[in-house]
Design brief:
This protein has 301 residues and is mainly beta. Helices cover 10% and strands 27% of the residues. The protein is built from three helices and 18 strands. The radius of gyration is 21 Å and the shape is globular.
């Protein structure tokens, strides 16, 4: 369980990037790195072919039976199912650039949800199941779990952020939870470059394209991992919807800004270069009017 937690190589002294063949503590193994652009061409063709030839149980979601469990199930468009609407007509597509490579992520909204919509860097309470596209399941949660989306694969974090949490939540006397009927239910189809790329693990090989189905029960907006007053999503300096990389390390100290309490490295804590209103909302200050907020400007001390 929870193989999907990304190996985010953030150590106390900085980011550690491993590219040699080795086995990690979470059971994944990395092999020699292929060209990302070449792999993405293969992933794109594989994902589009799957989306064109498969459907999900959308009719059950449209007119749910009394005993329907609201779980997404995929099947091939053929035979008795030849008239079904393909996933390619029902997913939304998002474009991202990561490691100088352009990617497409495909998100299915079986039920959008009615509550808080998290960002790619917030904290979420979910059930999930992960499978290789066109293959077997390799991971699933048994009970709902909290996921810090900064610590999971790029594709999962950005897929979840397209849906909304529910508005109804109750913890029962036996420790279980009840969530009502308005939480988000979706799936995300992930090219290997936004997943585990050259890593393999139990149930999936290197360069596997993945699909995760998930239920989004709860979400915490504006998560702030380093408690510096700047929410994680705003510390995505290069704007690619991912915060665990050197492109989001303003002062070059090998600690990404969302974990750095002094983002610009000027010796003044980030929190001390901000202001806050009476409700605790952050006010960003640009003292010298150069278009750069003080907490990112090393010329302001």
């Amino acid at each position: 369980m929870m193989t999907m937690i990304r190996k985010v190589f953030v150590a106390v002294m900085g980011l550690l990037f491993f590219v040699s063949c080795k086995k990690d503590d979470d059971g994944t193994t990395e092999i020699e790195v292929r060209d990302r652009g070449e792999v993405q061409v293969e992933s794109s063709a594989n994902l589009r072919a799957y989306l064109d030839t498969h459907f999900y149980n959308y009719e059950e979601f449209e007119t749910p039976a009394a005993d329907f469990d609201f779980k997404i199930r995929f099947d091939t468009i053929s035979g008795a199912n030849a008239d079904k609407t393909p996933l390619s007509s029902q997913v939304i597509t998002r474009q991202y650039t990561f490691e100088d490579t352009d990617y497409e992520l495909y998100i299915l909204k079986a039920r959008e949800g009615a509550g808080v919509q998290p960002t790619f860097a917030d904290s979420t309470f979910v059930n999930y199941q992960g499978s290789v596209v066109g293959g077997d399941r390799f991971d699933a949660s048994v009970t709902p779990v909290w996921f810090d989306l900064t610590q999971v694969v790029f594709g999962f974090a950005n897929g979840v952020s397209e849906l909304k949490a529910g508005t109804q939540f109750t913890q029962n006397a036996d420790g279980t939870y009840s969530f009502g009927d308005d939480y988000g239910i979706g799936a995300v189809f992930i090219p290997s470059g936004l997943g585990y790329f050259n890593s393999s693990g139990t149930g999936f090989s290197a360069y596997s394209d993945l699909v995760f189905t998930f239920d989004l029960y709860r979400a915490v907006e504006d998560s702030d991992n380093d408690n510096d007053g700047v929410p994680n999503w705003r510390e995505d300096i290069n704007g690619n919807h991912y915060v665990n990389e050197l492109g989001d390390d303003t002062d070059g100290d090998n600690v990404p800004d969302y974990l750095d309490t002094d983002d610009d490295g000027d010796g003044t804590a980030t929190r001390d270069e901000l202001d806050f209103d009476e409700d605790g909302n952050t006010i960003y200050i640009d003292s010298n009017n150069d278009g750069l907020d003080d907490y990112l400007d090393p010329d302001i001390e």
